[in-house]
Design a protein that fits this description.
single chain, about 450 residues, alpha/beta, 15 helices, cellulose degradation, glycosidase, Glyco_hydro_1_beta-glucosidase, Glyco_hydro_1, carbohydrate metabolism
């Protein structure tokens, strides 16, 4: 059964700059941390890089035409910081700004609202060489970059997302080492998380100078529950919730730094980078919160990787996600449980009384998609996943959560970070050797769902 979504609900699709653009040395763009990371042996699947990706930099008109065929209300995409402000300093790069200028105009000409993400992980390598997100200066430079982007696009772009998934930027980038820049640190990862939040706050100040701008941030969040009722698992779940959610939701939505974080990380950090007066900047009111969610977490207690508390990374918490071997998983190995999205949205509403309206800014699944002999790409598991998760959004709305829109991840198959090109999330299949785009079954299903919702809202 399909459950109706709220009237004026926004349907969209999402992408990210390094994952689709390619043209990494074109028109003044300088290397990002992901260029460096992906060109380092052993970091990505088969040594894949974003050098070409989906060649969106040259094929953007074709991709906007696909969005038009899909019938979306909005398109969420990110700007490449090293394309707009090479090396993260100085004036804006005219050629890079021209690219996004044309893209925005084409979207608006087709009646598609641009939702612009300022940072989706492609930090200029020059800034990382100076300390990266571990340092306060990076947050300040992010605000300068925000000003450049807004000065060029703000007359037409009204919906701005400061950061995408700062947990991944900090914890996967500076603690586990699975993402760029590939560091494995304790205090450095915590400082990165904090300075990302500060960068969000400083960028919000810049954008607020424009009274027409609508400002949000996108957090990747999970509903977290213990794997059992044992005190050990319950405590492990509390730690996991703190690390995955509260490190960002508490400062941004409530103006506080989590007490459990101060206690848990006391052996690896003196928190000297934390300034209490920053919390008012970080927690400035938002017009919306972007939520990325793919799966829920069931957490069990395990042994620490490092016996010495002072040598642990920020993600070495004595916790482990438990996945039911009998349950369905995606190509990424992630469990499929649509009701987790409903539970997450209700948790946000109950935990943060001033929660702004919510957009689901990413949701989707990787499937082992193949081209059939007739040239089609059938992906029934993705169709079912999208159906069930949209129903979960509708259920949360019926429970009183103010959910305004849903952006499917992703428009295109693309460079999936450390997983390279082996994982396919797109509504559109990309044949990488030829760059041919093939809309999948899910593309047609999503288009029809959008049309049905619009018809229902008019009736």
């Amino acid at each position: 059964m399909t459950y109706p979504l709220p009237d004026r609900f926004i349907f969209g699709a999402a992408t990210a700059s390094y994952q689709i653009e390619g043209a990494v040395a074109a028109d003044g763009r300088t290397p990002s941390i992901w260029d460096t990371f992906s060109h380092t042996a052993g970091r990505t699947f088969h040594g894949d890089t974003g050098d070409i990706a989906c060649d969106h930099y040259h094929r953007w008109r074709e991709d906007v035409a696909l969005l038009d065929q899909l019938g979306v209300d909005a398109y969420r995409f990110s700007l490449a910081w090293p394309r707009i402000q090479p090396d993260g300093s100085g004036d804006g790069n005219a050629a890079g700004l021209d690219f996004y200028d044309q893209l925005v105009d084409e979207l608006l000409d087709r009646g598609i609202a641009p939702f612009v993400t300022l940072y989706h992980w492609d930090l200029p390598q020059a800034i990382e060489d100076a300390g990266g997100w571990r340092t306060r200066s990076t947050a300040e430079r992010f605000a300068q970059y925000t000003q450049i982007a807004h000065d060029r696009l703000g007359d037409r772009v009204k919906d701005w997302i400061t950061l995408n998934e700062p947990w991944c930027s900090s914890m996967l980038g500076y603690s586990t080492g699975r993402h760029a820049p590939g560091a494995c640190e304790g205090d450095g990862a915590l400082a990165a998380a904090y300075h990302l939040a500060l960068g969000h706050g400083l960028a919000t100040q810049v954008l607020r100078a424009d009274p027409t701008a609508r400002v949000g941030v996108t957090l990747n969040l999970q509903p977290v529950q213990p794997a059992s009722d044992s005190p050990q698992d319950v405590h492990a779940a509390d730690l996991a919730l703190m690390n995955s959610n509260l490190l960002f939701t508490d400062p941004i939505l409530a103006g506080r730094y989590p007490t459990l974080a101060r206690e848990t990380y006391s052996a690896i950090s003196d928190f000297s980078w934390l300034r209490e007066e920053d919390l008012a900047v970080i927690s400035a009111p938002l017009d919306f919160l972007g939520v990325n969610n793919y799966f829920p977490s069931r957490v069990a207690a395990v042994e620490y990787d490092e016996a010495d508390p002072a040598r642990r990374t920020a993600t070495d918490l004595g916790t482990h996600d438990v996945i039911d071997p009998r349950g369905e998983t995606t190509q990424m190995g992630w469990p499929v449980e649509a009701d987790g999205l409903r539970r997450l949205l209700v948790w946000l509403r109950d935990s943060y009384p001033t929660l702004p309206p919510v957009y689901i800014t990413e949701n989707g699944r990787a499937c082992d998609d193949v081209i059939a002999p007739d040239g089609s790409v059938d992906d029934p598991d993705r169709v079912r996943y999208l159906q069930e998760h949209l129903d979960a959004v509708a259920a949360a709305s019926r429970e009183g959560v103010d959910v305004r829109g849903y952006f499917c991840w992703s428009l295109l198959d693309n460079f999936e970070w450390a997983e390279g090109y082996q994982m396919r999330f797109g509504l559109v299949y990309v044949d990488y050797p030829t760059q041919r785009r093939i809309p999948k079954t899910s593309f047609g299903w999503y288009r029809d769902r959008i049309l049905a919702e619009r018809a229902a809202s008019v009736a």
